[in-house]
Write a structure and sequence with these properties.
6-stranded antiparallel sheet, 2 domains, Elongation Factor Tu (Ef-tu), domain 3, Aminopeptidase, alpha+beta, 9 helices, 17 strands, about 30% helix, 8-stranded mixed sheet, single chain
Amino acid sequence: MADIEADRESEVAALLDELTSVSAVSGREAPMRALLARLLSFADELSTDALGNVIARLHPTRAPEGGRAPRVMLAAHMDEIGLVVASIDDDSGALRVLPVGGVDIRNLLASDVVVHTRGGPLPGIVGSTPPHLTAAKERSKPPAWDDLFIDLGLSPEEVRARVRPGDVVSFVGPGMRLGAGRYTAKALDNRAGLAAALLAFRRLQESERPAEVVLVATSQEEVGTRGAAAAAHAVAPDAAVAIDVGFAGMPGLAKRETIEMGKGPAVSTGANVHPQLRELLLETAAEREIPVQVEVLPGHSGTDAWPIQVALQGIPTGIISIPLRYMHSPVEVVELADVAAAAELAAGFCQKVTPDRIGGWHGVSLAGSAE
């Protein structure tokens, strides 16, 4: 059993190495689409749409007599937070930038970055004023965006020749194993969820499937869950599960605000989650002895599940949440076993979606009901 678990963790780590090695800042996800085209080449159908989503389909291995197989959508966003070049200083060639997505400016000082230009990537650093030259009252404050700059180590003339306003900037945070069974890298929000979705899709390709399974690697989640909104309308699933990350416990946070690393993925509950779909996820976990925990989301989940739920006439939607520390920083951390468990849960759920199980999820006529 220990050998099996070690093999699964190694499989997850190898996949995360690949996924975190590329840049996919929101709206500029082309490198990730190219990688996914290779990783998903075994799909029965593989396409992209105008918003940059990658859509992979597995046909059902058995269809019900006299009807169509249900369609399940697994959604995991492939984009990451980053920066965009706003202007170039005339005298120094320093790049002034603005955030793409929820960037915490406190994490940026002295960071390594990559500027993605039409001529290729350029390494750079986020410069900072030495404390010796900073007023005492300013030392404890984060900088303003107007004060932040990127130094490429090039002359102003070279910078202006190679960089244009609008070029995106990604963070550098190479993946590596950390401690016993943990993994750290930039963009684990949501490469961890994407890894789980890919692993689930691999498992399903090798097994019996009563449903059509559609994996959507969504674009532009970090700037408003935009890709998922378009994909939900195009795919029109009978049920959907968003696989994303949640806030893992860490010093300074209350337990009620977090989920625990190493205790498996969370099956979320709240207004953004269909109750019966959630029960089927929990049933799957119990049958397969997959450890799970509860994540309470009273309102907006902040995930792709939000726009999927209200697409078309409404789509029964659930959320699998992988515990993640240090969200929206270049040193995010996950437990490899949690990612593997999320993959097993997603695959098992898809194998349980049959017409009989989801027949009542889409509403029933209330005509003639008592008032």
